[in-house]
Amino acid sequence: MVTTLIDSRRAWNIAAQVPDPEMPMLTLADLGVLRGVEIDADGSVVASLTPTYSGCPAMAEMRAEVAARLREAGFARVEIRTVLDPPWSTDWITDKGRRNLAEHGIAPPGAAPRHPAGPVPLQLSATRRTVPCPRCGANDTEETSRFAATSCKALWRCRACREPFEYVKEI
Asked: How many CA atoms are closer than 13 Å to the CA of 59, on its beta-carbon side?
């Protein structure tokens, strides 16, 4: 039992260090997509990942990299499970992850929107928000494109320092 616990912690630490393929300044743990790592009764390592959104193209890379690192560390039997419930939220990004985003010029998300249980309300007008510039901290910014290199980010520009930056959208 103690060996299993030690192996579980070791496996977690290995999987937790895998960088996100789209935002490599974040580990899967800091992004909040690494949900758990366990040792099954048969000795298999089971790592659970939650995609940032349905159809995330980076999931295949994440799964492959976690499995490869665990095997390289000596775990012979590795299974990667995709967990969809509850769905991932930007609220799962750790404080360290948010700092890393800002240090790399990407504005971290604010709090994810909260909706009451039941049907999702339809909003026909754009939400006006202020996104502080991750470079100079100014609030005088504007969205230039709703989508960036990945679907979960938007392009913004700071009117104060004139620098463009990406912003991780709240989900």
From this structure: 18
The per-residue pLDDT for 32 is 97
CA distance 169 to 171: 6
For 121-143, the pLDDT digits (tens) are 666 656 667 899 999 999 999 99
Would you state the structure tokens that stand for residue 97, as one six-digit string? 């992850």
Phi, psi at 27, each rounded to 5°: -85, 165
Helix (H, G, I), strand (E, B) or coil at 5: helix
pLDDT in the model for residue 56:
86
How many CB atoms within 10 Å of residue 95?
Answer: 9
DSSP 142: E
Task: Supply angle C-alpha 144, 90, 145, rounded to 5.
Answer: 10
pLDDT < 50 regions, the chain: none
Quick one: tokens of 170?
């709240």
Q: At 141, is the secondary structure helix, strand, or coil?
A: strand
